Amino acid sequence: MRKIQILLMALFVINGLKAQEDAKKIRVSEFHVQNGIVFNSGQHFGLADYKTLAPNSELLANDLSTFQGNDYFIFNGPTSSSYQTIQLGLTFKSNPNPLWRIGISHISLGDISKGFSKSTVVPYDTLTSSQTGQQYFLDSTYSENYNMNYSSQQLRLETSLIYRTNPENRWSVYAGIGLSFGLSYNASTRIDYNSYSYSSSYDQSYDYSNLGQDKREYFENKSNWSTSVFVPMGIDFRLGKKREFWKRLHLYHEMKPSITYTTIPEVKRLTNVNIVNSLGLKVSF
């Protein structure tokens, strides 16, 4: 029994020494800061989803069967949200490839929105020209609008493995594979209602009037989480060739085509294809 214990202890010490030796081969060689925009494909919820996200909504308890639904794509149009990240770059002392980047990123998941509207047109007056006898019909339009919006912010752990051309050159290019995992905060649903009327006149102008019935409701939601697989690719420019300070500074442009799986606990899982377009500053050591 004692021989087995000694053998196990010896194996433990050998493995520990080997781990220390391997650790000496890896060093922190870079510091990265990025800021950019995420371009997204559209996602939408149905009315039933918003009723689940806002279960005590008085506005959504109203009958919307006669309203026309409109899907607004994610992020206030089919496009963008913000992206920021801070990362460290690790390399093997014997070889600058591959570069292992690891850090924390922040992303605004933006808005997933839907609207319902209804307009009622009522003729309210007729004008007759005393000279030509031509008649002008004046209409009054009454409009109601419901707008639903789900949004959240997310912090992510992000890592990627990068292969690049010679980083000592003035210009270099790179590409790799990456993975991120995020958990949201400030997940919420907002419900808005507004109504107004406007009247037409014979000269085709309109007189708008807010009816003063605007309402807004807020609901806090559970944290969502997401996993993203992406392909980072970019071009790097080293600012200096002679002075040591400028030689350590790099500007680069990076794009990350991504597939993101987001789980919203109250509703469902969303699959979203997006592209991160960012500018970065790198300090090499």
Q: What topology emerges from the helices and strands here?
A:
Elements: H1 2-25, E1 26-40, H2 47-53, E2 68-72, E3 80-92, E4 95-128, E5 135-164, E6 171-200, E7 206-210, E8 215-220, E9 225-230, E10 233-238, H3 244-247, E11 249-263, E12 269-284
Antiparallel strand pairs: 1-3, 1-12, 2-4, 3-4, 4-5, 5-6, 6-7, 6-8, 6-9, 6-10, 9-11, 10-11, 11-12
Structural write-up:
The chain is mostly beta strands and 285 residues long. The chain has helices at residues 2-25, 47-53, 244-247, and strands at 26-40, 68-72, 80-92, 95-128, 135-164, 171-200, 206-210, 215-220, 225-230, 233-238, 249-263, 269-284. Strands 1, 2, 3, 4, 5, 6, 7, 8, 9, 10, 11 and 12 form a twelve-stranded antiparallel sheet that branches. A hairpin with a 6-residue loop joins strand 5 and strand 6 (171-200). The protein is elongated and about 90 Å long.
Summarize the structure.
With 285 residues, the protein is mainly beta. The chain has helices at residues 2-25, 47-53, 244-247, and strands spanning 26-40, 68-72, 80-92, 95-128, 135-164, 171-200, 206-210, 215-220, 225-230, 233-238, 249-263, 269-284.
Q: End-to-end span in angstroms?
A: 50 Å
Question: Beta-strand percentage?
Answer: over 45%
Let me know the average pLDDT. 81
Helical segment count: 3
Shape descriptor reads elongated
Helix content: 10-25%
Query: How many runs of DSSP E, i.e. beta strands?
Result: 12
Computed Rg:
29 Å
Task: Report the biggest beta sheet as strand number plus sense, adding barrel if it closes.
Answer: 12 strands, antiparallel
